[in-house]
Design a protein that fits this description.
alpha/beta, Alpha-Beta Plaits, 4 domains, nine-stranded mixed β-sheet, 29 strands, disordered N terminus
């Protein structure tokens, strides 16, 4: 048995898991991402889950049971009959006394009496005195009892709860404290809704009430009231809601008891929060923030009594007793202009007092919606099981069968969530597991489709390794372009070569040398491709590239200059990093680049058996010679005069006039030293002017003047990397001083090598 045969895994061995894992990877990544998002609980996901819970409540509202809670509504008919609001406090006192006489266990006001009664006798007397036609000082009227004091006296003799508003604006006003709040465990101050001020009921009224509770209820981000706050804090003081305080007073109970998370050994992720609130005989489970999840009933007329029927005596004593004896009574305003309207899952326009009443009903009946601490963990496990299972099974089952499984999983998740709500009053959010199933199925099937398409495109990708993507597209559109021949274009050509490559290569094994070239040529090629170059070929360590073919490039000259400078920058970065795939980087590596522009013939060249998309022309040959001359003149980039004329904005320097090997006509050659920002540099301009003076004197055989100008060049030449160039001309000038050139010397340098 050969070594290769011995190492080949058998069917069912570990090699088989890799394709499965690869196919499942998108689904697994989606599952992981959604699990992280779910764990972080962003507000958008919470809103999505809330909308699902709203739909559940509309499908199955809480069945109404008479829990001994009534609402007295100051409705439009009441205002029409008894006059505009606010009424004289004597009317409110009469309403309170009538309810107390009927046997109400507590009368809680979802109305805040924060301003003195304008109709009190003293105020009325003052108004009368200001009348120009007044007679007397109305002292007998002013001496009558104040209406707020009368109302306070009735409150003192009745089981009542005064309401107050909480505000985010800081002020010194504080509501009266009746029985207070006791905390078992650490105070959950950070968890509770925080307020810095209040608008309380007048002290003359509130101090005579048996209790005080806040009436402020804030909805979620969409304005819907899904949770009723039972607790809040004003600075460092915990205060109860109107519904909680009403139950306390109705039972004659002491302080409200708040149970925090660490009172039962729970940690709540290290954050102290509320678990439950106990008031008298009732214990209500809450959210961490001390809120009660609301499960609303449909509108029930038997819960509400219009205030006018009570104040006008339309109900007999027996009827009053039947409706209110032993009842928790909330008084609220539902008239137009007074209406305290809120949105609930069941109604866009619901009286705010109804929320307080239904919160009290749920606490009395012990009928709660709950989202247990384990709900989030359960949902995470569910989405993980569905996501991982579907990701692994889908590639093997195919799109149709995995789609059926995904559909069944979605149906099972939604059905389970609904059953938990309907029969267990538990809120389990199905949206995230359902979203996971949908996204995993989509990603896995899309990835499978992509892999099939990638397989079909194998041949095309193979050609992409040898031809430019633009050329492949053109050939795909027009196969006739595979015919031999070409077209003439104005083009820009680049040749680059690695300095001392022979010495570098002799120190490496062949495989090391190949890896080294890949490591080196990849960033250089990236620099060219980023500037819209077409890579013609690699010749060992050399690169031939061009611009303006096969696609037109109106910025070919600027792109070629930027591309060459980008290659130099990439080379500096690699030298600074000094790391590669072949071990230690072989010292500082330099490249030389020749650039030239001119008319070329570009197209499919070669034989009928094998084609190559390339270009030929004098401009190509000159670019190759210029690359070789970079070693002579000691500059990294040399370009011909045609290209230099096209990019005057770049930092360029005419360095000589040369007659290259194989070419009769001389060529002015230029060093490309930098981008336009360097061209505007004052030192560069001074150096360029000095070098031009040197060249003029040199070509005019004025050797002393040439030496003087060259001295000026050398002062700043090192900054621009021109030490070797300056030394070259210093040597030439010194030689010609000793042995002058012929009289007919034209100043052209004859290159000896290619």
């Amino acid at each position: 048995m050969s070594e290769k045969t011995a190492k080949r895994p058998r069917a069912g061995q570990s090699a088989g898991w890799l394709p499965t894992l690869t196919a499942a990877a998108p689904g697994l990544l989606v599952t992981l991402l959604i699990a992280v998002i779910q764990f972080s609980q962003p507000a958008a996901l919470a809103t999505l889950g809330n909308l699902v819970f709203d739909s559940y409540q509309r499908l199955y509202p809480r069945p109404y049971e008479d829990a001994g809670v009534r609402v007295v509504d100051i409705d439009d008919e009441t205002i029409r009959r008894l006059g505009q609001w606010p009424w004289p406090r004597t009317d409110t006192a009469r309403l309170t006394q009538t309810l107390t006489d009927a046997g109400a266990a507590v009368v809680a006001f979802d109305v805040v009496f924060s301003e003195p009664d304008r109709t009190s006798p003293a105020r009325a007397a003052e108004i009368l005195r200001q009348n120009p036609q007044a007679r007397g000082d109305y002292a007998d009227i002013a001496a009558l009892p104040d209406h707020d004091l009368l109302f306070g006296q009735v409150m003192a003799s009745s089981p009542t709860v005064a309401g107050y508003f909480l505000t985010r604006q800081s002020n010194a006003a504080r509501p009266v404290e009746a029985a207070g709040v006791v905390v078992t465990g650490s105070p959950p101050m950070e968890a509770l809704p925080a307020f810095e001020g209040s608008i309380p009921t007048l002290p003359a009224i509130a101090q005579n009430a048996a209790g005080a509770g806040f009436v402020s209820i804030l909805g979620d981000r969409d304005g819907i009231i899904r949770r009723a706050p039972l607790l809040a804090r004003i600075n460092d003081r915990i205060v109860p809601s109107l519904s909680l305080e009403a139950l306390r007073v109705a039972q004659g109970a002491g302080a409200v008891v708040v149970k925090s998370t660490d009172a039962s050994g729970e940690t709540s992720g290290g954050r102290v929060g509320v678990i439950a609130v106990k008031v008298g005989n009732f214990t209500a489970p809450t959210t961490r923030e001390g809120e009660l999840w609301m499960h609303y009933t449909d509108y029930r007329p038997e819960r509400v009594v219009p205030a006018w029927k009570i104040l006008e005596g339309r109900l007999s004593p027996e009827e009053m007793q039947a409706k209110f004896e032993g009842q928790v009574v909330f008084v609220g305003a539902g008239a137009v202009g007074l209406r305290d309207l809120v949105s609930t899952p069941l109604s866009e326009r619901e009286l705010g007092v109804i929320v307080h009443a239904q919160a009290a009903e749920q606490m009395i009946l012990g009928k709660y919606l709950s989202r247990p601490d384990w709900a989030l963990g359960f949902e995470l496990i569910l989405l993980t099981l569905f996501g991982v299972g579907l990701a692994i099974l889908s590639p093997a089952l195919g799109a149709l069968r995995s789609g059926v499984i995904a559909g069944l999983s979605v149906a099972l998740t939604i059905a389970g969530s609904w059953a938990a709500f309907r029969y267990g009053a538990i809120l389990l959010e199905p949206t995230i597991p359902v979203l996971t199933i949908a996204l995993v199925y989509t990603m896995v099937t899309s990835f499978s489709f992509y892999r099939e398409e990638r397989s079909r495109a194998y041949i095309r990708r193979a050609f992409d390794r040898y031809l430019s993507p633009e050329l492949v597209e053109r050939i795909a559109r027009d196969p006739g372009q595979l015919e031999l021949g070409g077209e003439e274009r104005d083009m820009t050509v680049l040749f680059s070569d690695i300095r001392s490559f022979s010495r570098i290569s002799e120190k490496m094994a062949p495989q090391e040398l190949i890896r080294f070239l890949i490591e080196l040529l990849t960033p250089l090629t990236d620099a060219l491709l980023a500037r819209k170059a077409t890579i013609d070929k690699y010749i060992g360590d050399a690169v031939l590239a061009f611009w303006n073919a096969p696609l037109d490039d109106p910025d070919q000259y600027q792109n070629s200059a930027h591309g060459a400078l980008d290659m130099i920058d990439a080379m500096k970065e690699m030298n600074a990093r000094k790391s590669g795939l072949v071990g230690p980087w072989p010292g500082d590596i330099a490249i030389g680049i020749g650039l030239n522009a001119g008319r070329c013939c570009v197209g499919n060249m070669g034989s009928r058996q094998r084609l190559s998309y390339s270009l030929i022309g004098d401009a190509v040959n000159l670019a190759s010679r210029l690359e070789g001359l970079t070693k002579v003149y000691g500059v990294p980039i040399l370009m011909g005069q045609t290209l230099a004329r096209e990019i005057p904005q770049f930092a360029q320097l005419e360095v000589d006039q040369v007659r290259v090997v194989g070419r009769d006509a001389p060529e002015r050659i230029f060093a490309l030293l930098g981008r336009p920002v360097m061209a505007g540099d004052r030192d560069f301009q001074a150096m360029k002017a000095a070098f031009a003076d040197m060249l003029a004197a040199y070509r005019g055989q004025q050797w002393a003047a040439a030496q003087a100008a060259l001295a000026r060049v050398r002062e700043t030449g090192a900054v621009f990397g021109l030490e070797k160039l300056a030394g070259l001309f210093a040597e030439r000038i010194a030689r010609y001083q000793l042995s002058p050139p012929p009289v007919d010397w034209d100043g052209v340098y004859q290159a000896e090598d290619k």
